[in-house]
């Protein structure tokens, strides 16, 4: 196992342990709903977002135990968004992380309710667990950051614009704006919420970290679009070519494969440049950025 693979496994185990302790038991009523929540939250996945939270904490010298609730809340939001993305009313996918999607493993109504409950749980774990710094001001700021990241001006708004763009010709600028909201806002929250817990950063350092997250979020989405073309269903763990089947505009459909790969590399390099003033403590953020643009699923 490579050094990064070991790090990702450690981050994944950490957030899975947090979920196991804090999610309702599947034996607790309503059992079907709680089973669906655990099925979706603890159904594997890359756990890139918790890893970004922990890597940012290590860059800034924050104890990981103090930001478990941030990693957990963001991953719960991400998992809830996947449940709703997969629903028949949206992407209508049957496979997620190599397993049946929530509405296939259970039913559509249960999947909707599981997503709703996981969003509420995300805010609950953020307010119920230890965090560094003064309270209640810090909790209020973290809650606001997460709410903004997933609301109509963030992830949910991006999803709405993504659905509205089906069967339409849009500019690359419009597509980038959609994905800065749909994908980028939650990745930005990983960095922004964690750095909020550090009181020693100056404004330039905060700005550099946010720029890193902006560039990385777009690189992440471009790589997703590339993989939807060049990979296969078994490797992806979800249906390959689903964007093309639904006639969704993507970086590849607008720019072509070669230009998409070039643009992904450009955003990746811009992201790394933003970490120059954080050497050598930003080792894991750099390695995660490389992993994101080189991953196969």
Can you characterise this structure?
With 297 residues, the protein is mostly helical. It has one domain (3-288): Farnesyl Diphosphate Synthase (Orthogonal Bundle). Helices cover 69% and strands 1% of the residues. It has 15 helices and 2 strands. It has a two-stranded antiparallel sheet. Strand 1 and strand 2 form a beta hairpin. The two termini are 17 Å apart. The model has no long low-confidence stretch (mean pLDDT 92).
Features:
mainly alpha, 2 strands, single chain, Farnesyl Diphosphate Synthase, 297 residues, two-stranded antiparallel sheet, 15 helices
Give me a quick take on this structure.
With 297 residues, the protein is mainly alpha-helical. The chain has helices at 3-22, 31-41, 48-60, 68-85, 102-105, 108-128, 137-150, 155-164, 172-196, 203-230, 233-236, 242-245, 251-255, 257-273, 283-294, and strands spanning 95-96, 99-100.
Question: How would the blueprint of this fold be written?
Answer:
Layout: H1 3-22, H2 31-41, H3 48-60, H4 68-85, E1 95-96, E2 99-100, H5 102-105, H6 108-128, H7 137-150, H8 155-164, H9 172-196, H10 203-230, H11 233-236, H12 242-245, H13 251-255, H14 257-273, H15 283-294
Antiparallel strand pairs: 1-2
Helix pairs in contact: 1-3, 1-4, 2-6, 3-4, 3-9, 3-15, 4-6, 4-9, 7-9, 8-9, 9-10, 10-14, 10-15, 14-15
